[in-house]
Design brief:
seven-stranded mixed beta sheet; four-stranded antiparallel beta sheet; 60% strand; elongated
């Protein structure tokens, strides 16, 4: 069984910073892509940033220049450094991993339970 556990969410003032982390555990083979998505009651889940096993990153236009994603392949972790936060960044942030589980097909998406981020003064 594969689990993704997020940490680092919380309350931060506008212009502040937070660092989210996610660790994958369980039985699986290579993790192709890890990333972060976010969701609010008003909007469907949307991509924030992803990073491949080779280090190629991709960001939503709304966070480019403010957020930075990184991963440690050996530890099966991914982090998201969020700077210059806006109130619009308020959402539940979900860790995502695209991997091959021990008993599944290639390229299966797994999700964490989410960690809330609130940007408010």
């Amino acid at each position: 069984q594969v689990q993704l556990v997020e940490s680092g969410g919380g309350l931060v003032q506008p212009g502040g910073s937070l660092r989210l982390s996610c660790a994958a555990s369980g039985t699986f083979f290579s993790i192709y892509t890890m990333g972060w998505y976010r969701q609010t009651p008003e909007k469907q889940r949307e991509l924030v940033a992803t990073i491949t096993s080779s280090g190629l990153s991709n960001y939503a236009d709304s966070v480019k220049g403010r957020f930075s994603i990184s991963r440690d392949n050996a530890k099966n972790t991914v982090s998201l450094q969020m700077n210059s936060l806006y109130s619009e960044d308020t959402a539940v942030y979900y860790c995502n991993a695209v991997l091959t589980p021990a008993d599944g097909k290639y390229g299966v998406h797994y999700w964490g339970k989410g960690t809330p981020v609130t940007v408010s003064s």
